[in-house]
Design brief:
Layout: H1 3-17, H2 21-30, H3 36-39, H4 42-64, H5 66-87, H6 90-118, H7 122-153, H8 161-177, H9 187-190, H10 194-197, H11 207-237, H12 242-266, H13 272-293, H14 314-322, H15 325-335, H16 342-371, H17 373-390, H18 392-406
């Protein structure tokens, strides 16, 4: 089995086990009966461990080795998945969220850092990252439908879905146990002192990175913030059935996946900033039209996807237009900096994602309580889209300057 395929399969497996936050928010309110405001803090149980681990975990992984780190991670995660359904409380769900957050950090750092070990050019590097993220989103869709199926078939024992994740992790564990992975290119880094590992952290003060951080915050609000609250928006505001709410929410992930696959093709012929400018303008107009015409209870009589009004698919459609943004922005940042710093940069990106994910989910929860779901979604979509459009060309300029200095 090729190393590229192993990285891709590992990343797809990660998407299955880390895609549950929208479901957790909805089930925390409807199944465990906690408040909307408290449900908005669930993201913290995933992102706080990420926040702590992201900035130092890459050094530990380099010391231990990527393959051994994955094997140990899957062993621990499998045990957690097997135990949690027997406890079945909001605290056991929080415990799962914490562990899965750490698993996310470990696997994503290893996957992103390994791309540099199996590619030979910047273009190949960017192409593989875009493919990984597109497949990750596809796996997220499967994960959401898996949750939906368990909630529909066994609503009182829905968290047995974690046993399915244990099975997926077991297959990945077997794959890494019985196959080799060439890590010779990072052997020199293994011997470096801890402080030396952080050499180059000054890039955080670079103007291009600061713009990237702002763009990332805006994008994470759209994908993770809106994505986390979309099932509840569908069930609590539009009054769709719970299982159907998750299914329709999964169309956001479907749109993101399709957008990334389309972006991988279009970007061969069109400059990335031109494509993004057009897609963001369309997204702003589309979102404004949808949210100004949608109303409470529009889905109260809906029994299946096939008789749902088209307007309930409006917000999920946003995913198609924003899908390529994150992998392209991340790839531009990575390819405009030395390869030796890619693991560190990946860790910093994940640290920022942890902050922005939990912050956006919490802010949207507060907005839900204060102004209602429709207005909350309007604020949480139109403002980030506007920021992305406004800072698009400054980011283009900064990455081009960094690339020219590097060359």
């Amino acid at each position: 089995m090729s190393n590229k395929l192993k990285i891709i399969l590992t990343f797809v497996g990660l998407s299955l086990i880390s895609t549950g936050m929208p479901v957790f928010v909805m089930q925390a309110i409807n199944y465990y009966h906690i408040t909307q405001n408290s449900a908005g803090t669930l993201e913290l149980f995933s992102d706080f461990p990420k926040l702590i681990a992201s900035f130092i975990m890459f050094t530990i992984l380099i010391k231990v080795g990527f393959r051994r780190s994955l094997i140990l991670t899957y062993i621990v995660f499998i045990l957690v998945c097997l135990i949690v359904p027997f406890i079945n409380t909001i605290n056991s769900l929080r415990a799962y969220i914490i562990i899965s957050g750490l698993v996310f950090v470990i696997v994503k750092i290893i996957a992103y850092s390994s791309v540099g070990l199996v590619t030979k050019s910047d273009r190949e590097h960017a192409s593989l990252i875009n493919l990984m993220e597109a497949l990750y989103t596809t796996g997220s869709i499967i994960g959401l439908w898996l949750y939906s199926g368990f909630i529909h078939i066994m609503p009182e024992e829905w968290n047995r879905v974690f046993w399915a994740f244990a099975g997926v992790s077991l297959l990945l564990l077997i794959m890494w146990l019985f196959t080799k992975f060439d890590e010779s290119q990072i052997e020199k880094q293994e011997e470096l002192p801890l402080l030396e590992q952080f050499k180059g952290v000054g890039f955080l003060l670079n103007r291009g990175f600061l713009i990237f951080a702002l763009l990332l915050a805006s994008y994470e609000t759209l994908e993770m913030g809106i994505g986390s609250w979309l099932p509840y928006f569908n069930s609590g505001i539009l009054e769709l059935p719970e299982a159907l709410s998750i299914q329709i929410a999964s169309f956001l992930a479907i749109g993101i996946a399709l957008g990334r696959f389309a972006g991988t093709f279009i970007l061969r012929y069109v400059k990335w900033y031109k494509m993004f400018a057009v897609s963001l303008v369309i997204a702003i107009v589309l979102t404004a039209l949808i949210l100004s015409n949608i109303h409470h209870g529009v889905g109260k009589d809906v029994q299946s996807i096939f008789n749902a009004p088209l307007i309930v698919f409006g917000i999920p459609l946003l995913g198609f237009f924003i899908g390529p943004i994150y992998p392209t922005l991340a790839s531009l940042l990575l390819t405009s900096t030395p390869k030796a710093q890619h693991a560190l940069i990946t860790s910093v990106i994940m640290l920022l994602c942890a902050i922005f994910d939990s912050g956006s989910a919490k802010i949207i929860g507060v907005l839900f309580d204060g102004m209602g779901g429709i207005k909350a979604f309007a604020f949480a979509t139109l403002i980030p889209l506007g920021i992305l459009l406004f800072f698009l060309f400054p980011y283009k300029k900064s990455t081009e300057e960094s690339s020219s200095k590097e060359s």
